Amino acid sequence: MAEIAAELVAVERSLWSGQAKLVTAQTTEGEIGVYPGHQPMLGQLVEDCVVTITPAEGEKLVAAVNGGFLSVSKKKITILADDAVWSTEVNAAEAEAGSKDADEEVARRNQGLLKAQQRASNPI
C-alpha cells in the first residue's frame, strides 16, 4: 500500500512524524479520510475532535485534538493542532472531574447572568 509523510503537531509539542497509510480527522465540513494521492486541501478541525493515524508500520494512533487545521499537499499530511494528546494519555477519571467542575462553573455563571437580567428588567 502507498505511503505519505505525515505529522501531528500541537502548539506545545510535536506528537508524531513518519510515514502513514491513512489519516482521518473531523473537520468543519465533516469527517475526512486522507490516503496517499489525495488532492491538496486545507481543512479546519472541529473543537474536541479525534484524529487517527495509520502508520506504515505499527498500530493505529488515536489523538484527542482541540481545534487547528489539516493540511494536505502532494507530499505530506500535516495536522496543526491548538492542543492534542494521545488517547493513551487521557485519564478518564480526571477528565470527568474536570468536566463536572466546568459544568458547575457554567451553572454558577448562568445563575449570575439570570439574576443580573432579572434586576435589569425590574429596576427599583
TrEMBL record:
Keyword Heme set for record: no
Subcellular location, record wording: Cell membrane
Record's bilayer topology term: Peripheral membrane protein
Keywords for the protein's UniProt record, in alphabetical order: ATP synthesis, Cell membrane, CF(1), Hydrogen ion transport, Ion transport, Membrane, Transport
A GO CC term attached to the entry: plasma membrane
Subunit-structure text: F-type ATPases have 2 components, CF(1) - the catalytic core - and CF(0) - the membrane proton channel. CF(1) has five subunits: alpha(3), beta(3), gamma(1), delta(1), epsilon(1). CF(0) has three main subunits: a, b and c.
NCBIfam families listed in its UniProt record: ATP_synt_epsi, PRK00571.2-5, PRK13442.1
Name of this chain's protein: ATP synthase epsilon chain
